Amino acid sequence: MASSFTHIIAFKYKPEATAEAIQEFEETFLGLETNCRKPDGTQYLTVRGGKQICTHPPAHGMQSVFIVEFANKEDEKYFHDHDQAHAAFIPKAQGISTDAVILDFCPFQQS
């Protein structure tokens, strides 16, 4: 049985990024849930996110955090390598952020 796969990404925005530009960026990221589809049209991921609110260091200046969940690693690979909506999103991320932290994990296997 395939294991679920979680992709976490946090962004630090450029100092000149306006509140409106950040909001539009965040809405676009959340919209990947609707816009990312497999070739047969099926939805294959979920997205949630919010403002980084941790008060414990080190937060490294990250301002927004998103969690993208896939049914399996193969779906994440499709997202990363082939999904056109994701590919179109990457320049937007590069244009508004100065840094990002990306973490991926699969759940620990219980025996």
From TrEMBL:
SMART domains: Dabb (SM00886)
Start and end residues of each Stress-response A/B barrel domain: 5-105
InterPro entries with a match to the protein in the record: Dabb, Dimeric_a/b-barrel
Gene3D superfamilies: 3.30.70.100
Name under which the protein is recorded: Stress-response A/B barrel domain-containing protein
Organism lineage string: Eukaryota, Fungi, Dikarya, Ascomycota, Pezizomycotina
